[in-house]
Amino acid sequence: MHVTRLEARGLRRFADVRLAPAPGINLITGDNGAGKTSLLEALHLMAYGRSFRGRVRDGLVRAGDPALEVFVEWQEGLGPNVAAVADGGPTATRLRKAGLRHSGQDWVGRLDGSPVAQLGELCAALAVVSFEPGSHALITGGAEARRRYLDWGLFHVEHDFIALWRRYTRALKQRNALLKARARDGQLDAWDRELADAGEPLSRRRQHYLEDLQPRFSALATELAPALGDTRLDYLPGWRRDELPLADALLLARERDQIAGYTSVGPHRADWRIQFGGLPGRDALSRGQAKLTALSALLAQAEHHALARKEWPVIALDDLASELDRQHQRRVLQRLIACGAQVFITGTEAPSALAELGVETKVFHVEQGEICPA
Fold first, then answer.
1. Is 76 helix (H, G, I), strand (E, B) or coil?
2. Which of 85, 108, 254, 278 has an alpha carbon 20 to 30 Å from 123's alpha carbon atom?
3. Helices 246-260 & 185-224, crossing angle to 10 degrees?
4. Is residue 304 part of a domain?
5. Which distant-in-sequence residues (6+ apart) come within 8 Å of 70 by Cβ?
6. Can you tell me the distance from the alpha carbon of 327 to that of 334, in angstroms, rounded to the nearest whole number?
7. Residue 249: which of 232, 233, 267 has the closest Cα?
8. How many angstroms separate the CA atoms of 351 and 317, rounded?
9. What is the separation of C-alpha 196 from the centre of its chain, rounded to a whole number of angstroms?
10. Is the alpha carbon torsion for 358, 363, 368, 369 positive or negative?
11. What is the per-residue pLDDT for 374?
């Protein structure tokens, strides 16, 4: 998968900007505050429905503009056809297009010329894995980011997962509304069954996905952060699943939930954690170790996607030189160059490791919200 065209209007400092990236390494340089990170935010917005800096209404729309607009055109493989030609024949691809207009409150989107009813339809189409200065929160932050990590991966490798996730989310909203309204037990019984019917398979899929990531994550963590020792990923389902099914857990928690006004058990409370052989726990991680652990998790997800879909997602590395030292930059870039992934890198200058590798790079230079000749 690689982006062939990126356009944005009303995006932070950009009135109107257009890029025609190369399939390989793309370097976006500029002074601090020039707007280079905003270009990665545009890609991230299309792939996740939000910026990695936060919500759209939190400054992503250019001051004075009613909304931002993002258009992305990309080439992707045709699923099983890619595997069929993996031995050296021409790769079958198709050109896809997506557009999004977002005011921070309302949005309108199109995918391949047709309107979309759910933002998730756009997010499931374009696969982008982003590593940026806040990525360490995947390891040290709250559980919501780790649930999003699992669900994003499943959206892309299991096409029916989004329907299951929506079913569970709808049932959860209905049950919470009934709890707040002090509804009778008979009304809650129906939504408990619906929540359990969707939640049990949802939880199993998340656990299986995490188990599939385990060998790739362990190998990457050993390479990038050997001081952490052996690592293991453990899934926490959000209730005592080894002791009782979700339907029983909901029934046992009902009285407490009625008092609190929300559902306290289930996959929406799930999490996952990392066991480190060389450290007592994540609280003992330095900031640098947390970044390397997060990078290992993100690259493991990208590798899993590549194996399942027969093509790599787009990789976005924001401010790589300040996030990783030269040795780690080199290891990451060598891996990505070898696999042929399209990579976007931002920085005030070219990372030293990139120059050492001598790889052909397309350079874009940003000044005051404008793309200038490099």
1. strand
2. 85
3. 110
4. yes
5. 6, 7, 8, 11, 42, 45, 46, 99, 100, 102
6. 11
7. 267
8. 11
9. 26
10. negative
11. 67
Residues 238, 373, single domain; the answer is: no
Backbone angles phi, psi at 363, to 5 degrees: -115, 135
CA 58 to chain centre: 19
**Residues making up the chain, counted from first to last:** 374
Which residue reads 């356009």 in tokens? 7
pLDDT at 78: 61
Task: Establish if 370 belongs to a structural domain.
Answer: yes
Longest alpha-carbon distance in the chain: 69
Which residues contact residue 247 at a Cβ distance below 8 angstroms, ignoring those fewer than 6 apart? 192, 193, 196
pTM summary value: 0.89
All residue ranges of the chain with pLDDT < 50 are 80-90
Which residue, of 275, 292, 312, is where some domain finishes? 312
DSSP-assigned letter for residue 350: -
- Pairing state between β 314-317 and 271-276: unpaired
What whole-number distance in Å separates Cα of residue 51 and Cα of residue 37?
11
132 lies in a domain?
A: no
Between strands 271-276 and 231-236, the pairing is: antiparallel
Residue with tokens 């399209």: 342
Do 306 and 321 sit in the same domain of this protein?
no
The domain boundary, picked from 312, 341, 358, lies at 312
Percent helix, strand and coil across the chain, each to the nearest 5: 45, 25, 30
* CA atoms of 309 and 80, how far apart (whole Å): 8
Same domain, 164 and 281: yes
Contact 239, 199 (CB under 8 A): no
Q: What is the CATH number of the domain that holds 3?
A: 3.40.50.300
Q: Tokens 């996740």: give the residue.
A: 48
Rounded to whole angstroms, the Cα distance separating 201 from 167 reads 11
Q: What is the pLDDT of residue 82?
A: 39
List the domain range (segments joined by +) for residue 223.
139-312
What is the number of domains present in the chain? 2
Same domain, 151 and 300: yes
Residue with tokens 């250019």: 62
